[in-house]
Design brief:
The protein is α+β, with helices and mostly antiparallel strands and about 230 residues long. It is about 40% helix and about 15% strand. The protein contains eight helices and eight strands. The strands form three sheets. A three-stranded antiparallel sheet has the order 1-3-2. Strand 2 and strand 3 form a beta hairpin. The longest helix has 19 residues.
Length: about 230
C-alpha cells in the first residue's frame, strides 16, 4: 500500500496518507490538539496514533493523549544517559500569564469541586483578582490591565480559555494540565509570602521557572514548530 501511495509533490517519499500528515504537522505546530475543537483531526489521530507516535519518537518527542480531557500534546524527551538533540523550545509563561493561570486554575478547581459542569469567569473578575497580586513596580492600573488582557489573549490562543461572549470566558480542563495541583499550591504559597504584612515574604522569589519565565515569551505559539508548553 505504501508503494502505491501517489506523490503529493515532486520527489515525495512520504508514506503517510495526506490526512495523517496534516495531523502530524498539526501536533508539531501547535501546543494542543483538542477533541472538541478539532473533531476530524482527533479522529485521525486516534485511528493512526501508533504511526504518529512513531514519527514523533524518531524526533525524540513523546505524544501524550489524555482521553479523559480530550486533548493531545507533545513533550520533549530528555535523558541523562543518552545524548538527544532538543527539537522543542520551552516557551514558559510570563509573570502576568502565570498569575492569571493561578486565578483560572483556582476557579476551575472550586467549580469542579462544587459539581459545576463548566467553570466560567468574567474579565473584570480576572482583573480585580490578578491586579491584587501585582507590586507597585508593575506600573499603574492601565498598564496592569493591558498586561492581564494580553495574558488572556495568549491563553485563549492556547485553548485554555474560550471567550463565549464579550468578556465572559469558559475555562478549559487544559488548565489542569498546564498548572498541576502541586504547582498551584507552590504558587499560592509564594503569593501568600509576597502579601505577608510582616514582611517575612518580601524577599521571596517566584517558584523555579518551569511555569514562569519573563524572558522567554512566544507571541504566536500556534505558528512555531519547535515549542512545548512548560509544565
Amino acid at each position: 500500500m505504501e508503494d502505491d501511495l501517489a506523490e503529493l509533490f515532486p520527489g515525495d517519499r512520504g508514506v503517510l496518507e495526506p490526512a495523517v500528515r496534516r495531523v502530524f504537522v498539526h501536533v508539531l505546530q501547535r501546543r494542543f490538539l483538542q477533541a472538541d475543537r478539532n473533531r476530524d483531526e482527533w479522529t485521525v489521530l486516534l485511528d493512526n496514533q501508533q504511526l504518529i507516535e512513531s514519527r514523533l519518537n524518531d524526533l525524540f518527542v513523546r505524544l501524550v493523549v489524555d482521553h479523559e480531557r480530550g486533548v493531545a500534546y507533545k513533550q520533549q524527551v530528555r535523558s541523562d544517559e543518552l545524548e538527544m538533540p532538543i527539537l522543542l523550545r520551552d516557551a514558559p509563561y510570563t509573570r502576568s500569564e502565570t498569575l492569571v493561570l493561578v486565578h483560572l486554575r483556582t476557579v476551575f478547581q472550586r467549580e469542579s469541586a462544587a459539581g459545576e459542569p463548566a467553570a466560567r469567569v468574567d474579565i473584570e473578575d480576572v482583573e480585580q483578582t490578578v491586579m491584587s497580586y501585582f507590586a507597585d513596580a508593575d506600573g499603574d492600573t492601565a498598564r496592569r490591565q493591558r498586561s492581564i488582557r494580553k495574558a488572556m489573549d495568549r491563553l485563549a490562543r492556547d485553548g485554555i480559555v474560550d471567550e463565549e461572549t464579550t468578556g465572559r470566558f469558559r475555562i478549559s480542563p487544559l488548565v489542569e494540565i498546564v498548572l498541576s495541583a502541586e504547582k498551584l499550591r507552590e504558587l499560592r504559597d509564594w503569593l501568600r509570602a509576597q502579601s505577608d504584612p510582616s514582611g517575612a515574604g518580601a524577599a521571596a522569589s517566584i517558584p523555579s521557572g518551569d511555569v514562569f519565565d519573563d524572558d522567554d515569551v512566544d507571541d504566536d505559539p500556534e505558528d512555531d514548530v519547535d515549542e512545548e508548553f512548560a509544565l
